[in-house]
Amino acid sequence: MDIKYSVDLIESYLDLDRTPVGIKFFFDWEEFEKFEVPQRDRKVTYCNSVQLASRGKAMKLTKENQGCPNGAMALKMREVPEPMANGKGRLSKNIYHNIEISKSISDEMLFLEEEPVGIAVMPLENYELEPDIIIIVSNPYNIMRVIQGHGYFNGYTSNLRTVGLQAVCQDLTTYTYNTKDINITLLCPGTRLVANWQANEIGIGIPFEKWYEIVQGVKETTNPFERNKEKEGIQKRLRERGLDASNIRFNENYDDGSYSGGKIETRG
């Protein structure tokens, strides 16, 4: 499996409205300069760069491009000020009940430990080099399917952590980068404002080391988990991309014969 093929597969097996986004950190200036993607010519919040990439935009970013102080802190492109580190900053805005809780949020967030000279943010399918992180923002159903694909090879997902704050920069990017494991986010008010995510969208961050097995896991769990209506769409998308659709089996699910009483009935 290669990157382009993996994107074709995931976009066939999931009905995505946005393309998966790849994030690559550069710690060598010469390598960053040689990476043939235009550098952003003005500031942008990191989360909005991810949103733009999910719609096809590719860009490189340095600390001068950072339009959000919290995103820059997560990416080690700005020092964490003492009021943020000790919890007083967020407590002053009435986000948390007391100083202990507020400080615990800062203590438990995992930011980059080394400052990158730059970052590439672009559609995953554009990469030839391996990115560090893959981000998918979609509806809860598709994120469920990604987690099921992860579970196929990895079992129960026990590490998911989120608090509705620093959703794209920390939940999906730096936490995933540090732990080398997947994480989800329900997003946060800040990114929903500046990146204009839809109300029904949530996200998942995936380390590249797990990407191919997750794609394969989504494929392998299609027949037990997807219903006939969704299978029809998958089959159609596979064929449109010239991919093999012969493994799609209808009228077959993991819970066949498990339920009594049928679906809930509603009266008009």
State the secondary-structure class.
alpha+beta
Please summarize the sheet with the most strands: 6 strands, antiparallel
Low-confidence stretches: none
Output the number of helix runs.
Answer: 13
Mean pLDDT: 95
Number of strands: 6
Helix content: 40-55%
Descriptive keywords:
268 residues, six-stranded antiparallel beta sheet, single chain, 11% strand, alpha+beta, 13 helices
Short description:
With 268 residues, the chain is of the alpha+beta class.
Topology:
Blueprint: H1 3-13, E1 21-26, H2 29-34, H3 46-53, E2 59-61, H4 69-74, H5 82-85, H6 88-92, H7 99-108, E3 118-123, E4 133-138, H8 140-154, H9 167-179, E5 183-185, H10 189-194, E6 202-207, H11 208-220, H12 222-225, H13 228-240
Antiparallel strand pairs: 1-3, 1-4, 2-3, 4-6, 5-6
Overall description:
The chain has 268 residues and is α+β, with helices and mostly antiparallel strands. The chain has a domain at 3-76 and 111-220. Helices cover 43% and strands 11% of the residues. The protein has helices at 3-13, 29-34, 46-53, 69-74, 82-85, 88-92, 99-108, 140-154, 167-179, 189-194, 208-220, 222-225, 228-240, and strands at residues 21-26, 59-61, 118-123, 133-138, 183-185, 202-207. Helix 1 packs across helix 11 (208-220), helix 1 (3-13) packs antiparallel against helix 13 and helix 8 crosses helix 11 (208-220). It starts with a helix and ends in a 28-residue tail after the last helix.
